[in-house]
Amino acid sequence: MTTDWSLLDSFILEKVRETKLPSLAIGVVDKNGEFIYSRVIGFRDVERGLPATLNTNYGIGSVTKSFTALCVVKLSFEGLIDLEDSVVKYIPEFNVKPFGRDIRVKDLLTHTTGLPALGYAEAFIRSVLELDTAWLPISKPEDIILFMNNSSEWAVSKPGEKFYYLNEGYVLLGYIVSKVTGMSYEDYVRKTILKPLNMNKTYFSEEDFRKDFDTAVPYLIDKNGNLVKTKFPFGVTADGGLISNVNDMSKYLTMLINRGVFNNSIVLSEEVVKTVEEKRVDYPYKLFGDESYGYGWMITEKFYDRKLVSHSGSILVHTAYAGYLPRDGYGVVVLANSSGYPLSIIGLYALSIALGHNPEKELKPVFYDRMMSKLVGIYETYKGTFHLSIERNGDFLTLVYRDKYTESKTTLVPVEIKEDYCEFYTLSNTRRIPVEFYIEKERIIMIYERYKFVKKR
């Protein structure tokens, strides 16, 4: 049966236009490494009118963590790293002990150090892009160790207990890789993953980026929706420093789908691949309800009752998403040269279609988005005696009253979203006030306090 990808084509164009992304590149591969869908839209360089391609390089941000985790786990199977060991065994100068407890290597892998985000990457990237004055000159792992020196007092839980995303932890993992292998982290990734997969256009360094004639110019989108050409934040490494493209990343996903095998050669053992995919700690930001974090990957088993392994990445000026379905043998990578519509949703949309589902009806964030937008408009009471407007504010709606002299805004929090009925609530002097929408074929009715409103436009 031929898959109809026209829904995805329309969705991508809509979201690229809506959020002003300069370019977006996407590829969906099957277990044979063949593209069953690919699309590139927009410009890698807007000013010069240069179109992006499947070979255009983008920073993949935190998708890099999956590479780092694979390297660490591979070394653990080879006996060079014990995931149960304290980090101090490999980095003696590391003296961070949340609540007096040692942080283990596996705590770094699962973001369960007990430390909430310390913000090194945020400060570094924003200062390089001249968005903030919080300059943090981190140029090597030793600088991270120095930066974390007093962070024990910042801990909110003991190691191994709770998930708190920590970029600094993956920098330390890269440092451990270099310590036990005797080569730089970057060289080990090249030797272990990039070279065996023929990912010949994937790299870490500014030098390689400058020599590459097909790279995406980094852009920011300002508050007025204008594109601002800016810099690439070189210097981030094991936590988010890889630069790649759809063609190369499709090889990576193909290898993972095939349990470590690529072109009939074993790149990684099946045990290594399965180990990084195991659920390790509850992931608190739920979409499907069962999300967990493994080693360098987020995992759910409720994507149409299938296991989905995925990760997003962002360095503000470039964004990325990679995900794959081990059982069905599909993988997707999405890359863009700015921050806009979440690439994870576009990736989920693509995988939904690959499985034969309709994401417009069955993918929760897309369905919610459509319904929320449908409710936006001007509402009036009986014979137009009173008017209110409903406006969109991200994942919330805002009820707005305006007259000649005043304006009031009330946030509406969603409770239930269905095709024919939507319930929200707001607070008034701590009292919870329901706001209900009844969606009929020809009209939308809103019930708010003592009033009935009908949408007019």
Automatic annotation (TrEMBL):
Keywords, sorted A to Z: Hydrolase
Domain Beta-lactamase-related, chain residue ranges per copy: 9-340
Pfam families per record: Beta-lactamase, Pab87_oct
GO MF annotation terms: hydrolase activity
Record's keyword annotation contains rRNA-binding: no
Residue ranges of every copy of the Pab87 octamerisation domain listed in the record: 362-454
InterPro entries per UniProt: AmpC-like, Beta-lactam-related, Beta-lactam/transpept-like, Pab87_oct, Pab87_oct_sf
Statement: the UniProt record of this protein carries the keyword Signal: no
Top-level division of the source organism's lineage: Archaea
PANTHER family named in the record: BETA-LACTAMASE-RELATED DOMAIN-CONTAINING PROTEIN (PTHR46825:SF9), D-ALANYL-D-ALANINE-CARBOXYPEPTIDASE/ENDOPEPTIDASE AMPH (PTHR46825)
Protein name: Serine hydrolase
Source organism (scientific name): Staphylothermus marinus
